[in-house]
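Minutes, project check-in
Item: structure for the 151-residue chain
Input as provided by the requester:
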Amino acid sequence: MRRGRFLVLMVILGIASFLWAVNLDAQPDDISLDDNEVFTSRSRPAVEFPHMQHIDAEIECSDCHHRFKGGENVVDEGELEEDAEGIKCSSCHKSEAGFRFKPDLDPTKRTLQQAYHRMCMSCHRQVKKENKTAGSVTCGGCHPKKKAAQS
């Protein structure tokens, strides 16, 4: 009887591990944050977000991806597929002319640029406080100047 339960448990764990690995493999390595419908004019190049690097660092999906109801993040990680309805940041965070970074702005009223900047910079600062390697908090660190074309 115990042997049968153990076998069933091992099969379930094997299937779960396989499904987890398939989902992880389906994630893009880098994501270009270049929504031309939102970012109609730029003073800096689009950010190439190292998505896989964040996954490898074991950052929870829900640390970045969120949908709040009653003050609680209710996002279902099963919904997190590229271009899924209502999952893109621009589904809730829209564009606004005259962007200015306002760190204390009500999260429900942040534009897409404000949401990106607040999310990334606050996390990177927190990680640095913990004396861990973190991403940049400077403009040029995420928005590198375009390299001149090589001949």
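Outcome recorded: The chain has one domain: 29-142.
No further action items on this chain.
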